[in-house]
Task: inverse folding
C-alpha cells in the first residue's frame, strides 16, 4: 500500500491567484482520505496533480517517498475513478476491465481470471459482455470502481464518483466502496463536495477552501469540533452568532452579543479580548426546557417562530438574543409536545458546545484571495 | 322502480357510446388537421426538390438512353425502315421518305440533330447530310434511290441504313457504350473504340483515384487539426475555426490565382525550394497545370468538409476517456489508438465520404489548375454539354457517375454497420 505526501505544493494557472496554496498533506498507507470542499476550493486540482494530469507550479508530491512531479500519469500506477466513470463506450465491460491488464502485457489467462474476480468483487459477474451504455448508472459506477482496482494499484483516486447517482443508490455505493476499501486495504483519496459522503466513508477528512486545508481531522472531530467558522458552516448545520470577546479565562471566554447579552463559550479562536468572533452552536446540542443543573449551562429565553415536523425529529425556529433565529433540533421521541407561534421557550446548552471561532468564514488560516 | 333504473342505465350507456364516438371523431379530425399543417410546412421544399432536383435528374437519366430526337426528325424514314430486313439497300420508297424528311428538317433547321447523332458512328456524316440536303430541291427523274446514291455513294451502303435504323429506335445504349469507350458495329457486335479516342474510362479511373487521394490527404491534414480544435477552449477554437473556414469565404478565382502565383514554375514555392537548394534551377517542380495542381487545390478547398464532421464528433468525446486510458497505464500512443481513434471513426467516415463525393463532381478547380493531365470526368461532361453538344453522351457519363457515387455511399453505409452517417 502506498503513502502520499504533498510538500509545499502550489498551483496557479494565471500566476496571480493560487488554486492550491502551499499545501502540506500526508496520506498514510491504507488510509481513506476525503478532500471535501465547495467547487473551486482546489480539491480536484490536488487530485489531478496526484494523478499526473496537472503539474504543480511549485512544491513536490511524493508517492511512497519518491517524488513524482516528473513521472508521466501512465507510469504512476494509480487507479482512478472519474466523475462520469469514463468507461470506454466502444468496449464491453470485460474489455474495459481487461484494458489496464493488456497494456501491462499480462497473459490472456491471467487477464480472464482477474477480470472475473473484479466483476465478482462488484457483484456483476454476468454483465461482462454488455456495453457500458446498456448498464444502469449504479452498474456503470461499479464497473468504474472495478476497472480502477483490477490492476492492483496501491493508490486509488476517486473524483466525485457518486455525483451522478440518486440519493438511495449513492448511500448504498458509499457502504460498498467502504467495504472494498476495508477488504483490500488500498489507500484511497476521495474528492467530494458532499459532506455526508465524506463523513460516512472517510478515515480522515481534509476540508478545503481557497486552495488551503481548513481542517484535517477524523470525521467526528470535523463535525463536532470545527476549527474555524468556514468548517462550522460548511459541515452540518450550525447556529452562528457574531460577537466580541470580552475576556478569556482558560479554555473559555465571555462573548458580548449585538444586543448586549454576554454568554460563555469555548475559546477556539486566537482572538484576544476586544476581538471579533463567530459563535457556533449545533442545533442538536441545544436542549429545550432544560432541568436546572450546574452553573456551566447557558440558559436563554426566546419566542417560537415555527416548528417543523421532519419525521424522527422536529426543527424548532426560535428568536433569541434580540433578532437572531436559532434552529433547534429535538428528537420527537423526547419532545412529546407542539409549540404555538409566539410562545415563550427556554433553551439551554453547555458552554463548551458553543464554540467561539474566527470572525469570518475561511479567514482563519492565511490570506484570502 | 327497478325498471326505471334499468332504463336510465341503458340511456346512460347509449349516451356513453355516442360520446365515445364523438370524441373519436374529434380526435380524428384534429389528427388530420395536424397532418395537413405538417404537410403545408414541408410542401414548399418538396415542390422545390421535385422541380429543381428530381425532375432534372430523371430528364438526365432518360436523355442518356433516349434517341427520340433523331427518330422524330426522320419520322417517315424510320417508319418505312421498320420492316426492312437490313440485307440489301432499302426500297425506293424509303429513299423518297428520307428525301422528304431531310427537306423538312432543312426547312425547320433540324439537320444538326441528325448530323450530330450520325457523326458519332459514321465518318463524314456531316458533309454527307449537308451535301444531300442541298441537292433535294428538284424532283428526280429516275427516283430518289438513284439520285441519292449519285449525290453520295454512301447512300448505297446498307451499313449506313442499318445505322439509321438503329438510331431511329426510341431507346439506345450507344451513349452508355460511348461513355465506356465502347461502340456497336453495324453488325451489332460491341467492341472498344480506337485507343486514341478512348478517354472516358481513363478519366473515370483518374476521377476515382484523385477523389480518393484528396479524401486521404484531407483526412491526414484535417484529423490533427480537428483533434486540436476539439480540445482547445471555445474562444480559441472559434478563432481557429474561422481560419479553417477561410477557403469558403474566398472567391474561387482569387484562390486559384493565388495557387498559380504560389505553384507555377517561377512561383513562390519553386523559388523557395531553389533558394534552399532542395531542387536545382533546372529541376523546378511542375506543381500546377497538371494532376498535382488539381490535388493540391482540391485538398485545400475541401479540407473544411473533412474538419467539420471530425470536429463535431471529437467535441463530443470527453477528455476524461484519454485520461482514464493513461491512468490505467496505457502509453499516449496506445490511448490514442485504442480509445480515442475508435470513437472518432464515425467522423472519419462521414468526412471521407463527404469529401470523396464532392471531389468526384469537382469541375471548375480542375478546369482552372489541372492542365491536360489534371482534368476529371466532370470536365468531359461539361465539354459535351457546352462544346460538342452531345447531350446524350453527357447524360450517360453523368448517370454512370451518379451510380458510382451511390455505390460508394452504399459501401460506406455497410462499413458503418447500417447506422447511416452521423454528420455531427
Result:
Amino acid at each position: 500500500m502506498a503513502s502520499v505526501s504533498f510538500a509545499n505544493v502550489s498551483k496557479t494557472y494565471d500566476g496571480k491567484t493560487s488554486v492550491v496554496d502551499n499545501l502540506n498533506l500526508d496520506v498514510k498507507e491504507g488510509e481513506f482520505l476525503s478532500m471535501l470542499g465547495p467547487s473551486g476550493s482546489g480539491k480536484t486540482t490536488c487530485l489531478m496533480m496526484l494523478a499526473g494530469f496537472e503539474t504543480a507550479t511549485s512544491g513536490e508530491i511524493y508517492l511512497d517517498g519518491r517524488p513524482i512531479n516528473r513521472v508521466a500519469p501512465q507510469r504512476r500506477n494509480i487507479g482512478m475513478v472519474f466523475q462520469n466513470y469514463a468507461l470506454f463506450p466502444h468496449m464491453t465491460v470485460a474489455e474495459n476491465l481487461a484494458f489496464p491488464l493488456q497494456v501491462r502485457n499480462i497473459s490472456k489467462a491471467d487477464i480472464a481470471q482477474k477480470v472475473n474476480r473484479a466483476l465478482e468483487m462488484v457483484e456483476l459477474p454476468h454483465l461482462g459482455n454488455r456495453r457500458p451504455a446498456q448498464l444502469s448508472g449504479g452498474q456503470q459506477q461499479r464497473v468504474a470502481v472495478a476497472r480502477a482496482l483490477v490492476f492492483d494499484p496501491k493508490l486509488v483516486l476517486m473524483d466525485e464518483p457518486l455525483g451522478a447517482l440518486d440519493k438511495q443508490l449513492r448511500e448504498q455505493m458509499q457502504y460498498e466502496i467502504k467495504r472494498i476499501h476495508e477488504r483490500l486495504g488500498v489507500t484511497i483519496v476521495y474528492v467530494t463536495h458532499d459532506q455526508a459522503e465524506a463523513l460516512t466513508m472517510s478515515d480522515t477528512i481534509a476540508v478545503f477552501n481557497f486552495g488551503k486545508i481548513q481542517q484535517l481531522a477524523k470525521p467526528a472531530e470535523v463535525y463536532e469540533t470545527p476549527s474555524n467558522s468556514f468548517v462550522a458552516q460548511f459541515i452540518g448545520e450550525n447556529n452562528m452568532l457574531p460577537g466580541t470577546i470580552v475576556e478569556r479565562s482558560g479554555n473559555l471566554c465571555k462573548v458580548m452579543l449585538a444586543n448586549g447579552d454576554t454568554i460563555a463559550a469555548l475559546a477556539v479562536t486566537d482572538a484576544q479580548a476586544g476581538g471579533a468572533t463567530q459563535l457556533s452552536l449545533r442545533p442538536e446540542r441545544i436542549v429545550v426546557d432544560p432541568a436546572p443543573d450546574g452553573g456551566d449551562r447557558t440558559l436563554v429565553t426566546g419566542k417560537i417562530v415555527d416548528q417543523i415536523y421532519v419525521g424522527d425529529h422536529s426543527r424548532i425556529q426560535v428568536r433569541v438574543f434580540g433578532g437572531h433565529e436559532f434552529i433547534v433540533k429535538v428528537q420527537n421521541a423526547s419532545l412529546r409536545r407542539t409549540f404555538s407561534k409566539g410562545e415563550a421557550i427556554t433553551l439551554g446548552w453547555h458552554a463548551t458546545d458553543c464554540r467561539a471561532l474566527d470572525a469570518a468564514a475561511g479567514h482563519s488560516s492565511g490570506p484570502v484571495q | 322502480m327497478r325498471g326505471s333504473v334499468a332504463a336510465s342505465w341503458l340511456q346512460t350507456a347509449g349516451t356513453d357510446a355516442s360520446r365515445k364516438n364523438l370524441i373519436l371523431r374529434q380526435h380524428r379530425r384534429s389528427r388530420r388537421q395536424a397532418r395537413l399543417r405538417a404537410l403545408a410546412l414541408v410542401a414548399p421544399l418538396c415542390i422545390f426538390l421535385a422541380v429543381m432536383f428530381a425532375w432534372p435528374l430523371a430528364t438526365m437519366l432518360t436523355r442518356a438512353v433516349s434517341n427520340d430526337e433523331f427518330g422524330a426528325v426522320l419520322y417517315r424514314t424510320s417508319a418505312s425502315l421498320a420492316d426492312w430486313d437490313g440485307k440489301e439497300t432499302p426500297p425506293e420508297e424509303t429513299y423518297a421518305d428520307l428525301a422528304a424528311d431531310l427537306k423538312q428538317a432543312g426547312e425547320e433547321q433540324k439537320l444538326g440533330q441528325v448530323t450530330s447523332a450520325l457523326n458519332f458512328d459514321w465518318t463524314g456524316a456531316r458533309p454527307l447530310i449537308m451535301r444531300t440536303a442541298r441537292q433535294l430541291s428538284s424532283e428526280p427523274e429516275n427516283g430518289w434511290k438513284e439520285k441519292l446514291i449519285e449525290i453520295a455513294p454512301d447512300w448505297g451502303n446498307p451499313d449506313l441504313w442499318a445505322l439509321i435504323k438503329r438510331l431511329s429506335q426510341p431507346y439506345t445504349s450507344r451513349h452508355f457504350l460511348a461513355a465506356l469507350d465502347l461502340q456497336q458495329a453495324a453488325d451489332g457486335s460491341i467492341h472498344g473504340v480506337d485507343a486514341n479516342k478512348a478517354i472516358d474510362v481513363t478519366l473515370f479511373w483518374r476521377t476515382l483515384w484523385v477523389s480518393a487521394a484528396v479524401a486521404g490527404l484531407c483526412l491526414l491534414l484535417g484529423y490533427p487539426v480537428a483533434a486540436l480544435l476539439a480540445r482547445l477552449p471555445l474562444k480559441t477554437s472559434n478563432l481557429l475555426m474561422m481560419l479553417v473556414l477561410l477557403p469558403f469565404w474566398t472567391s474561387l478565382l482569387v484562390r486559384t490565382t493565388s495557387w498559380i502565383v504560389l505553384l507555377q514554375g517561377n512561383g513562390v514555392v519553386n523559388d523557395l525550394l531553389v533558394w534552399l537548394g532542395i531542387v536545382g534551377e533546372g529541376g523546378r517542380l511542375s506543381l500546377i497545370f497538371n494532376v498535382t495542381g488539381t490535388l493540391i487545390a482540391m485538398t485545400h478547398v475541401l479540407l473544411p468538409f473533412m474538419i467539420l464532421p471530425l470536429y463535431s464528433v471529437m467535441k463530443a468525446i470527453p477528455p476524461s476517456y484519454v485520461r482514464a486510458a493513461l491512468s490505467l497505464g496505457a502509453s499516449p500512443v496506445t490511448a490514442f489508438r485504442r480509445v480515442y481513434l475508435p470513437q472518432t471513426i464515425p467522423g472519419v467516415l462521414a468526412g471521407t465520404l463527404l469529401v470523396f463525393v464532392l471531389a468526384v463532381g469537382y469541375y471548375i478547380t480542375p478546369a482552372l489548375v489541372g492542365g491536360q493531365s489534371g482534368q476529371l470526368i466532370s470536365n468531359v461532361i461539361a465539354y459535351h454539354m457546352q462544346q460538342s453538344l452531345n447531350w446524350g453522351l453527357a447524360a450517360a457519363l453523368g448517370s454512370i457517375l451518379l451510380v458510382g457515387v451511390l455505390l460508394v455511399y452504399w459501401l460506406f453505409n455497410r462499413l458503418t454497420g447500417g447506422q447511416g452517417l452521423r454528420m455531427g
About this structure: Confidence is low (pLDDT under 50) at residues 361-369 of chain A. Residues 167-184 of chain A form the longest helix (18 residues).
